[in-house]
Structures are given as structure tokens and as C-alpha cells.
């Protein structure tokens, strides 16, 4: 089998490595801006699919399908982002007899639409956040529904993701303006202006469950991850196991995640996301129908290679492990090293990496597509690398993280390394006392996230 990776950067490198471990040939696609990218160098074949902007390359379905035809690829792995959760793309692959390494188009359609996903969660008796039963057709109906739900509330794009198409309405006064802004952003980002409303849970934590299922009816979870350290709904640090989560709550959430996947007849990797409030009540938020950026920490915790498992599932193979034999050993963090300036409101900092010296040593993993001299283009996500560290417990994992971050040397662009070192010296973070609003609150207080040396 020959696999075309319809993505770029570190996830493309990650998929190429998994394919080569399985003895599969690989095809990299790249934009003109990515001609010297690492995934292009590592793949068995590479083909240019367009100009730098993603709308002219990585999001252009016809170009990707043409690349498959030219190279004779049998399968497509979409990675995350771009076309990974595009039901139309998955359906085209299915009709073209290309193996889509992900869930079925129908599952993406059901779970990718947040209002439909919410209905599935309700069906299996999973708690959901109070909100509208479906799409709100216009601002007049929206205001009427908002008064029933109560303020503050979220105005959300039904087809949204990555923090896009979300606005907060704290009162009737600002509802109309934010509804129109969310609707326009949804249309621009997802070509779908559908909006729904959701009650705002105060000071929640963002906890998600990693699941994987095959086409033979076998479903497994790989535990939960806390992803609450975010800036404007963009994740920065993830960890597993989640602090402050009891075994009883963990059991309820992982069971709910499996039940949602079963109800949708889901197969492949997927992540069920929840909000956990201050009283440890949990609520279904959404399901991501793809491999996640932070899949790495679940792999490090359990020893299961999720990308290889995902490819095997797409090939029709059975998953051979058993739930009661999956071991959850130690504690693992992932730190997103982005080309951003934390001291200047996380302003993007694209440019040439004059030098790039990554960390190493025991209990350290680095997923990256960068090298000294590599130019980070301005068109895409600003990620330089994902630093993953493991310890016997949370305290040891924090110490390993400090060591690894101090070994990580980058020059030529600003990075989030100092931000992470700041957080590892932050008393609330050390104690696990944080929530989804923690970083945004620190920014409002004027914090510049300088390393606390």
C-alpha cells in the first residue's frame, strides 16, 4: 500500500515514520512554501500541489486527488487540520476507492456537526451543556433562545474547530453584535454560517478522552488528557492523567466517550472532549474525528502507537489489545513550542531558524519538522515542535520538562519556551490549580511570561 499524506509539518513527519515502520511507501504533498520541509525529504516521493496559501494547496481537494493519481497512491492520511474533518473529502476518497485513514464520511458528518453530536451524546445519556437543540436560524430567534438559556453564553459555529467561530455574549446588549461576528467568521473559516448557542460553564477545565475503534466493533479508550492551559481557546500545554480527576469521574467520562463512539458507529482514532465544572460535573462538548495534536501524550502513557493503529484500522485489521491490559504508567506532558512572542500577546514570529538545537535524554520525545536554517512560513500554524516528557509521577515529569526546555535552543524567531518555563515555576500550575481561563486571566493582568529563573 502507498500512503499519500495530505498534510505538512510535524504531523506529516509523524505519519511518514509510522508508515515506514509498517513497511508502507509514502507520498508527501507540499506547497511552494514547503519545498524544503522535512516531510518532503523523508517521504519516498513528493509532489507539489500549489502555492503557499493553504486555500491554493493543502485545502484544494482536486490537487490532492490528482497527486494520488499521478503517484499511484492507494490511501490518504489527512493528519489534523486542513481536510481532516471534511466529510465531503472523506466521501470523495471513498467513492474514488481510495482508503481514507480516518473515520467514515457519515461519522464525520454526524460528529463534526456539533448540534448532531450533542444529540448523540444525549441519546447515550451523557450530560451535555445546556443550549439550543439545533441551529439558530437568525439573530431574532437567537436572542429569544438566549433569554431562555441565560447569560453569559457562547455563540458557536456548528462546523467550528480550533477556537474559530466562537463569541461570548455576557448580556442582551452585546448579543446581536457577537452573533453577527460569529456567523461571519463561521462562513469565512468553514463555508458554513450555522450557529448554535451554549450556556457558558464558569471556570471549567477542558478534559478529553482518547478513543480508538476498529471496523469489527472493538472500542478502547487510552485515558484522559487535561488541555486547560489555553490562550484564546488555542491549546498550549496538555497532560495526562488529568490532575484533580477522581477515578470515579474518570470511569464515567471514559465510559461516556466509548458510548458516544459506539452510537455513531465510529472507527479510527477520535477524541471526545468534555468540560468539567468547579463541582466536578462533566459535560460533553464535542468530538474531534481525527488524530489530535496531543495524541503523543496518550502514546507515551500507554505505549500504544496510535498512528500505526489508525492505519491498521483503515486497512480493515482488528485491534489486538484489550482494555484491561492497557497500562497507564507515570505522568506525561506535551508543550507546544510555537513561533510566537508570549511577552507581546503571543504575536506570530515567522522567519528563519538561525540555529535549532533540540533537547534529548531520558524520558524526552520531540515531534518536529524543523532544523537549523529552516524558514517557518507565514501561511500556516506557527508550531515549531511538540516537546513531550514523562516522569514516574507529575512532580518528576515537571522536573524533566524544566531540564528539556532549558536544553532547547532556538535563535532567529521568538518562541514559547520562556512561557512554558514560567508555567513550570507557577505555584498554581504546580499544584494543578488551573482552569480554561487561567492564561487569558494572566494576560489581562499584564503578565509577560518571562522565565522565572
Q: How would you portray this structure in words?
A:
There is one protein chain. With 453 residues, the protein is an alpha+beta fold. The chain has 3 domains: 2-101, Rossmann fold (3-Layer(aba) Sandwich); 130-199, 2-Layer Sandwich (Dna Ligase, domain 1); 205-444, 2-Layer Sandwich (D-amino Acid Aminotransferase, Chain A, domain 1), CATH 3.30.470. Helix content is 34%, strand content 26%. The protein has 15 helices and 22 strands. The chain has helices at residues 9-21, 38-42, 61-71, 87-95, 105-112, 114-123, 139-149, 172-190, 247-263, 295-302, 306-314, 394-407, 417-424, 427-430, 438-444; strands at 2-5, 25-31, 45-50, 75-77, 99-100, 153-157, 166-169, 195-199, 205-213, 219-231, 234-240, 268-276, 282-288, 331-338, 340-341, 347-348, 351-352, 355-357, 364-368, 375-376, 383-391, 409-411. The strands form 6 sheets. An 8-stranded antiparallel beta sheet has the order 13-12-9-10-11-14-21-19, sandwiched between helices. A 5-stranded parallel beta sheet has the order 3-2-1-4-5. A hairpin with a 5-residue loop joins strand 12 (268-276) and strand 13. The model has no long low-confidence stretch (mean pLDDT 95).
